[in-house]
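[Meeting: bench + compute handoff]

Bench side (C.D.) handed over the final construct sequence. Compute side (W.E.) agreed to return the predicted structure before the next meeting so the bench team could plan truncations. Sequence as handed over:
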Amino acid sequence: MVEGVFRGSRAAIRPIELGRRLVREMDDQRSVDVKGRRIVPNDFLIHLNPRDLASFADIEDVLQAELVEAAREYAREEGYHFMGPVRVRLTADETLRPGRFAVVATLRQSAGGVGAGSLVLPSGERISLGDRPIIIGRQSDCHVTLNDQNVSRRHAEIRPGRGAYVIRDLGSTNGTLVNGTRIVAEQRLRDGDILGFGSTYVRFEAS
């Protein structure tokens, strides 16, 4: 865990300053795992003076979500890997003067050691994958419900495997595609894979 302090101007801290510092921490703390992958921190705690934190009160949730997305995008561009879901939190720190902030970046492994994963729906909504199987289908009680008549009621399952997520077709009528190819039984997923369910296409992101 490394902590660094950035001295801003007398004006309010700009969100872009937080984003730049966050990706810098990723660069500074990157390391190589036993598989030769470059891994970087995925948990970020940003310390702010209470006055600066209050200035973000109306946009705090949106800001945290955008910083998470910025970290994911930077990791894809640089070929970095996360050990777990990306999380960004803001916290008040009275020891810091206004205009200063500190970032504590940490490597945090997800449950089961499978790493991070998410599905990006056509609407742009992101569904985080955890350590339990999820069912995709047209039925309302599925974890991911798709409003598509070409999708079966219980179409496919995605579950954590040994070091990667695995997709399995559940006997759907139209089958399940990975990058345009129909899977026979089950298949390991890789970052950027496009999953096809009926007429709906979803992107899998390992980061």
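W.E. noted at the follow-up: The helical segments are 15-28, 50-55, 60-78. C.D. will use this when planning the next construct.
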